[in-house]
Design brief:
The chain is of the alpha+beta class. It is built from 24 helices and 13 strands. Strands 1, 2, 9, 10 and 11 form a five-stranded antiparallel beta sheet that branches. Strands 4-7-3-8 form a four-stranded antiparallel beta sheet, with helices on both faces. The two termini are 33 Å apart. This is V-type proton ATPase subunit a.
C-alpha cells in the first residue's frame, strides 16, 4: 500500500459468456476491485436488457420497505444478528415476501375493522348512558307532574287549578308538536362553535343539550384520543334536521341512534341499567378487546419473524439488483452469446480478478471461460488510495479540496502529522488536549457498537473523524506542555523554575527582584513567565516568530513536492523554470527572514528584524550598524535581493517559449493528407492524429504563466502573513482560558459560600466545554484546514482527478435504496 501516490491502474476489457455472466459479476462484487464503465449510456433504463429483472427486484424492495415501516410503527427494529452468508433462491424469496405482505395486509385490515367497531361501540355506550340519563331525568319530572295532578284531583279546594293542569298535560294530540332529536359526540374544542353555528343556522329553533365526558375517547375515524362531549339536539321539521345533519358532518361529529319511541326508550334505559349492573356491556367490549389483542399479538409475532430475517433479505435483494444494474452496463456481443465489459482495476488486482473469472466459469459449468484483456488508452485513470480506518479521515480532508490527479503526490501523507500539529499550535493547552483525547478514546473504544447505530449529523461527523481528533488531542498535549498551560495554570512538571527571589521581600513579585537560581527550565516555557509583566510581549514575540518558521517550512515542503511531481512525470521544464525559481524567490526573502530569527535566538542579539527586512528593499547598500547579525550580512542581503528579482522573469518568460518549441517538435512532420491509395476508406480512416494535433495557443499559455507568476509572488507574501493566524489563535485561546480561570473560578472560590463556589465551578465548566472545547476547537480546525488547502497545497497539488469507485457489495449496507 503506497499512500504517497495512487495505485497504478489499467483499463480492462472482459468478454464473459452469458451463462456465467451473473456469477462473474457477483464474484467481482465480492472482490470489490473493478470499476465498470457504462457501455450503454445512450440507452434509457427501460431499453436495457435486464430491465425486467431490475423491476422485479424493485418490487421486492418495495415490500421490504413496507415491512420496515410496519416494524417502525410497532416499535420493533430489524435484528442485525440474522445476517447469514448462505444464499436463498430469489424465486422462493419473492413468493415468501408476497405471502407475508398479503398476510400482514389482511391482519392490518381486520385489526382496523375490529378497532373501528370497538371504538364505535365505546362511543355508542357513552351516548346511551348520557342520553339515557337525560331522558330518565325528564321522565322523572313528568311522573312528578302526574302525581301532582292526581293529588289535586282528589282535593275539592283546587278544582279550577287541577283543570288547568289537566288541560296542560292532557293536551289534544292533534295540537301537540312532534319533536325529533339527534344524538352523538362532538370534539370538546369544537363544541362551542358547533352550538353557536347550530343556533344561527336554525335561527334558534333547536334545543341543544350537552354532557361532558370525564375521560378522552378514541375517535373511530381518526384513531386518536380526543376529548368529547355527548350532545342531544331537539328539532322540529325535516328542514331543520337536514341542516343539523350537515353541521354534524362538517364538524366531524359522530352520530348514534337513540329510539324516539318513549316506551322503547324506557326499555333501553332499563336494559342499559341491567347490563351495567351485570357487566353485560363491559363484557361485550372486553370480548372485542380480547379479540383485538390476539390479532395484535399475532401481528407482532409475524413482524418479529420478518425482523429476524429482514437484514438478510434486504441485502440479498440489494445484491441482486446491483448485479443486474451492472449487467445492464455491459454490451451484448454480435453473436448474442457473450457480454463485453470495460472498466478500471488496480494492476495488483489482476491475478485476483482472473481467479474470480475462472471460479465463476467452473461454478456455472460454462464451456467457455471469460477473457481478460488489457486495453491501451490515453484516458486518465481514476485515483485509488488504499486507506484504513486511521488514514481514511485524513484522505477525506484532502479529497474535500479536490481528488488527486492520477499518481500525483498525495498531501495526506504529510497531513497526518502537519494538520494536528498546526491545530495544536493554536490550541496549546494540555488540559484541554486531555479532554479531547478522552472524548475520542471513548468513540474509538466503542466504535464497533457506534458504527452500527444511527447517530446525529454532528455526532456522525465527530465519529468519522475520531482518529483526526485523537491526533489533535495528542499534539495539543505536547504543545500545551511546551506552553506550560493546564487550563491556563502553569506547573513545574520538569523541575523547579530557573528564577527565584533575591530576598524575602520579592516573594510575591513577578516584575522585579528575580534572579536565576537554577539551570534553564529543561522543557517548555518556564512557569515564572506566567503572571509577569513581560509575559505577553515575550509570548507574542516567540509565537509570531515560531509561526513564520513553521509557515516557511511548510511552504518549502509544498514546493519540494512540486519537484517530485515534475520528476515523476518527466517534466524537466517545470523543474528548471518553475521549481528552481520558486525556491530561490521564497527563500531569498522569507527563508532569509527565518534564518535571521534562528540566528537572533541563538546569539541573543538585540537586532531589529523589522528594520533589517524593510531596509533590505529600501536601502540595500546602507550599513546595518547595530542590526548586523553576522559578518558579510550586507553583501549576502544584496545577493539574495538580486536573486529574488531575477527569479521573477525566470518564472515568467522561458516556460511558454519552451512549451511552444516542445509542441512543434512533437508534431513535426505529422501533418498529412489522405492518399487515394490509402488502406482505409474515408468513413473509417484513423483520426487520432487530427484529434491529438491541437493548435498551440501561445498567447493563452503566456497569460496563464503570467497569472501563475503574479499569484506566486504575491502569494509568497500573503501566505507567509497568513501563517500568523497560528500566533493570533494561540494567544486568543490562552487569554480566554486565563479569563475563565481568573475571573470565574478563582473569583467564585474567594467566597465562603458553597452555593457561590458551586455556581462558579458550573459556569467555569460550561464555559470551558462550550467555548474552549467546542467553539475554539472548531475555529482552530477550520484555520488549520485553510492553511493546508491554500498555503500548502496550492504549491504543488492539482487535484483535478476523479475517484475510483469499484463495484462492491460491501458498500450496499451503507447506501439507502
Amino acid at each position: 500500500m503506497d499512500l504517497l501516490r495512487s495505485e497504478p491502474m489499467q483499463l480492462v476489457q472482459l468478454i464473459i459468456p452469458i451463462e456465467s455472466a451473473f456469477r462473474t459479476i457477483s464474484y467481482l462484487g465480492d472482490l470489490g476491485l473493478f470499476q465498470f464503465n457504462d457501455l450503454n449510456a445512450e440507452k434509457s433504463p427501460f431499453q436495457r436488457t435486464y430491465a425486467a429483472q431490475i423491476k422485479r427486484c424493485a418490487e421486492m424492495a418495495r415490500k421490504l420497505r413496507f415491512f420496515k415501516e410496519q416494524m417502525r410503527k410497532a416499535g420493533l427494529s430489524p435484528s442485525t444478528k440474522s445476517l447469514r452468508s448462505g444464499d436463498i433462491d430469489l424465486d422462493y424469496l419473492e413468493v415468501t415476501l408476497g405471502e407475508l405482505e398479503s398476510e400482514l395486509i389482511e391482519i392490518n385490515s381486520n385489526n382496523e375493522m375490529l378497532q373501528h367497531t370497538y371504538n364505535e361501540l365505546s362511543e355508542y355506550k357513552l351516548v346511551l348512558q348520557k342520553a339515557g340519563e337525560l331522558f330518565h331525568s325528564t321522565q322523572s319530572i313528568v311522573a312528578a307532574q302526574q302525581s301532582e295532578l292526581e293529588l289535586y284531583n282528589t282535593t275539592e279546594q283546587s278544582v279550577e287549578r287541577s283543570l288547568l293542569l289537566e288541560q296542560e298535560i292532557t293536551m289534544d294530540p292533534s295540537k301537540q308538536v312532534n319533536l325529533g332529536y339527534i344524538s352523538g359526540l362532538v370534539a370538546r374544542e369544537k363544541s362551542m362553535a358547533f352550538e353557536r353555528i347550530l343556533f344561527r343556522a336554525t335561527r334558534g329553533n333547536v334545543f341543544l343539550k350537552q354532557s361532558v365526558l370525564e375521560n378522552a375517547v378514541i375517535d373511530p375515524v381518526l384513531g386518536d384520543e380526543v376529548e368529547k362531549n355527548v350532545f342531544v339536539v331537539f328539532y322540529s321539521g325535516e328542514r331543520a334536521k337536514n341542516k343539523i345533519l350537515k353541521l354534524c358532518e362538517g364538524f366531524g361529529a359522530n352520530r348514534y341512534p337513540f329510539t324516539e319511541d318513549l316506551n322503547k326508550q324506557e326499555q333501553t334505559i332499563i336494559f342499559i341499567s341491567l347490563l351495567e349492573d351485570s357487566g353485560g356491556v363491559s363484557g361485550r367490549l372486553a370480548e372485542l378487546k380480547t379479540t383485538i389483542d390476539v390479532g395484535l399479538a399475532h401481528r407482532s409475532n409475524l413482524l418479529q419473524t420478518i425482523g429476524f430475517e429482514f437484514e438478510h433479505w434486504n441485502f440479498l435483494v440489494k445484491k441482486e439488483k446491483s448485479i443486474y444494474h451492472i449487467l445492464n452496463m455491459l454490451n451484448m456481443d454480435v453473436t448474442k452469446k457473450c457480454l463485453v465489459a470495460e472498466g478500471w482495476c488496480p494492476v495488483f488486482a489482476k491475478d485476483q480478478i482472473q481467479n474470480g473469472l475462472r471460479r465463476a466459469t467452473l461454478d456455472s459449468n460454462s464451456q467457455i471461460g471469460a477473457i481478460f484483456h488489457v486495453l491501451q488508452t490515453k484516458e486518465s485513470p481514476p485515483t485509488f488510495f488504499q486507506t484504513n480506518k486511521f488514514t481514511s479521515a485524513f484522505q477525506e480532508i484532502i479529497d474535500a479540496y479536490g481528488v488527486a490527479k492520477y499518481q500525483e503526490v498525495n498531501p495526506s501523507v504529510y497531513t497526518i502529522v502537519t494538520f494536528p500539529f498546526l491545530f495544536a499550535i493554536m490550541f496549546g493547552d494540555w488540559g484541554h488536549g486531555i479532554c479531547l483525547l478522552l472524548a475520542t478514546l471513548y468513540l474509538i473504544i466503542r466504535e464497533k457498537k457506534l458504527s452500527s447505530q444511527k447517530l446525529g449529523d454532528i455526532m456522525e461527523m465527530a465519529f468519522s473523524g475520531r482518529y483526526v481528533i485523537m491526533m489533535m488531542g495528542i499534539f495539543s498535549i505536547y504543545t500545551g506542555l511546551i506552553y506550560n498551560e493546564f487550563f491556563s495554570v502553569p506547573f513545574e512538571l520538569f523541575g523547579p523554575s530557573a528564577y527565584g527571589c533575591r530576598d524575602q521581600s520579592c516573594r510575591d513579585a513577578y516584575t522585579a527582584g528575580l534572579v536565576k537560581v537554577h539551570d534553564t527550565y529543561p522543557f517548555g516555557l518556564d512557569p515564572k513567565w506566567h503572571g509577569s509583566r513581560s509575559e505577553l510581549p515575550f509570548l507574542n514575540s516567540m509565537k509570531m516568530k515560531m509561526s513564520i518558521l513553521f509557515g516557511v517550512a511548510q511552504m518549502n515542503l509544498g514546493i519540494i513536492m512540486s519537484y517530485f511531481n515534475a520528476k515523476f512525470f518527466g517534466d524537466n521544464i517545470n523543474i528548471w523554470y518553475q521549481f528552481v525559481p520558486q525556491m530561490i524567490f521564497l527563500n531569498s526573502l522569507f527563508g532569509y527572514l527565518s534564518l535571521l530569527i534562528i540566528v537572533k535566538w541563538c546569539t541573543g542579539s538585540q537586532a531589529d528584524l523589522y528594520h533589517v527586512m524593510i531596509y533590505m528593499f529600501l536601502s540595500p547598500t546602507d550599513d546595518l550598524d547595530d542590526n548586523q547579525l553576522f559578518i558579510g550580512q550586507k553583501f549576502f542581503q544584496i545577493l539574495l535581493l538580486l536573486s529574488a528579482l531575477a527569479a521573477v522573469p525566470w518564472m515568467l518568460f522561458p516556460r511558454p517559449f519552451l512549451l511552444k518549441k516542445q509542441h512543434e517538435e512533437r508534431f513535426q512532420g505529422q501533418s498529412y493528407a489522405r492518399l487515394d491509395g490509402s488502406d482505409y476508406p474515408p468513413e473509417i480512416e484513423p483520426h487520432s492524429v487530427s484529434h491529438n494535433h491541437e493548435e498551440f495557443e501561445f498567447s493563452e499559455v503566456f497569460v496563464h504563466q503570467l497569472i501563475h507568476t503574479i499569484e506566486f509572488v504575491l502569494g509568497a507574501v500573503s501566505n507567509t502573513a497568513s501563517y500568523l493566524r497560528l500566533w493570533a489563535l494561540s494567544l486568543a485561546h490562552s487569554e480566554l482560558s486565563s479569563v475563565f480561570y481568573d475571573k470565574v473560578l478563582l473569583l467564585a472560590w474567594g467566597y465562603n459560600s458553597i452555593i457561590a463556589r458551586g455556581i462558579g465551578l458550573s459556569v467555569f465548566i460550561f464555559a470551558t466545554v462550550g467555548v474552549l472545547l467546542v467553539m475554539e476547537t472548531l475555529s482552530a480546525f477550520l484555520h488549520a484546514l485553510r492553511l493546508h488547502w491554500v498555503e500548502f497545497q496550492n504549491k504543488f497539488y492539482v487535484g483535478d482527478g476523479y475517484k475510483f469507485y469499484p463495484f462492491s457489495f460491501a458498500s450496499l449496507g451503507q447506501d439507502d435504496e
